[in-house]
What does this fold into?
Amino acid sequence: MTTTSSTTTGPAKRSAPRFGNRQQLQQLLAFAGLVVIFGFFSFASPYFLDWANVKGILLATAVTGIMALGATFVIATGGIDLSVGTGMTLCSVMTGVFLANMGLPLFVGVLGGLAIGALIGLLNGLNVSYLRLPPFIATLAMMMVAQGLSLVISGTAPIYFSEVGGFDQLAGGELIPGLPNAVLIFFVAAAIAAVVLSKTLTGRYALSIGSNEEATAISGVDVRRWKVVIYTVAGLFTGLAGIVMASRLNSAQPGLGLGYELEAIAAVVIGGTSLRGGKATILGTVIGALIMATLTNGLRIMSIPQEWQKVAVGIVIVLAVYADILRRGKEA
Amino acid sequence: MNVNTTTRTRFARVAAATAAAVVVLALGACASGGGTEPGAEGDRPYVALVSKGFQHQFWQAVKQGADDAAAELDVEVTFEGPETETEVEKQLTMLQTALDKSPDAIGYAALDSEASIPMMTDASSRGIPVIAFDSGVQSDVPVTTVSTDNLAASAEAARHMVELVGSGKIAIIGHDQTSQTGQQRVEGFTAYIEENAPDIEIVDTQYAAGDQLKSADAAKAIMQAHPDLAGIYGTNEGSAIGVVKAVEETGRSGELTVIGFDSGQAQMDAIRDGLMAGAITQDPIRMGYETVAAAVAAINGEEVEPVIDSGFYWYDETNIDDEEIAAVLYE
It folds into this structure.
């Protein structure tokens, strides 16, 4: 296994050999959950199992899903990122400023939006690492700063991309016929995130810091510096989510975004990533996001009111985390 | 170890510098974009307005009307509201702060028509007249309520739906099931359909908090469950845009009649592009204006009508560019 360098720095109990198996089990359980939910709705409603609807579910997953990918890295370190929702909004507003107000070329504007996301993550990382703020507080503050700045910069009005040729095609177009680009972007981003988490130092150190920060530091890893890198990587996904959302709505909506962070965190947790850190899988997060979107969609198709949809998602979160605790109990 | 220390200090410096930059940026933004502080020292009467929000274009238009009236009637007006229209408690704090500044009158758009009753009594005991706007308060204290008749306005939306659809299944995407406004926009519509259109069935009513993405997802699910759906009504800007988005993304434009509520660039574009049949718009500018005008009248001890209807309009492709309509549409 290539992960030995990082995993051996963690406590002996959690060492390498079982690492892979446990992750696979986690994903298998989450996937089984998704299949059960999918199967249930397929029987419950004749309209559920239909490509148009599945496409709708995938599209509904894309934005929160991309956000959740970034959140996975932060949660892997044992941290939390509350700034992904409004941070995404700020990225979409700034993309609007770059493209619609300043008239920059599409490519530059999109890169600019990603850069704002990275900057948000960088600041989060610096605040967590060097100012030693608890991640909850640092990102809570950033959540407010981002929301405020979105409203100030946009003058509280939506910024429309109608004049920006091709912007709506970023998410709305279909490079692969029948599959909206937003979904494609989500899957590609997930693939990249999976590689980064399992094959690069950034990912390995994230997991290592999450399972034992002191041990990681003692083994010579500059923990503070790597945390900055990890939060910045998470910020990039926030930026990407902002661009996809803006493209899908063909506008930047400064009032939207608050509350999305909780959905992203829920997706990560349902996917089997531990909030205590040290344990995370991207595939799990993708499945978690799909479970939430499928559940909401299915209940909507069955005309179950919104308030019950929330109850259902809440119950799923409890079940997912409880399953994780049971599993850990057996392994210990 | 030395190397490590230098990197660390460098990072610390970067951190400090960036933090400083953010603070400066934020302060600069405050200075340029900040609101007008009440001038307690001025001789002009001071009217404090506490709205349901401020980031929506609707509230910006209300503010504009209020500012117009303030300039015309020579009064000082402040305008504030919580970030989202669900923050009842935050709004009550704002109301309390406004009361503590001892304004000459207060304009208040209640997020919750009952939660503010104690504060209404407080205002009354301090002798500060209260003007309710947008939605009423369950109290005798407000001297008047300036609002859109949402029941009548949504019945008008239903009348157009009936005209355009004739018969079949329709659905509603609501924005808020706890506020009076949100409830009435559904009630007025539903009641009209039930009384006047026996051939039209409302198959589903779902709420998505006025969030465009969630409204789109909800509308798509309803369309999926009812493939023969003939029309959808969205009860505010975000809901209506979400419905348009759903129709667009499923490639079913032309098959469904979409009717919206409120205004905004995206709804206006949708009407011009034929994606939306039409929408009801309130008159937010007049609402803001009438609120301040009523406040001034109350300060001067004049009689004020107990209810002031700020009006509404139906707009579609045919009249969207008319002068009268264009004036009340806000982008």
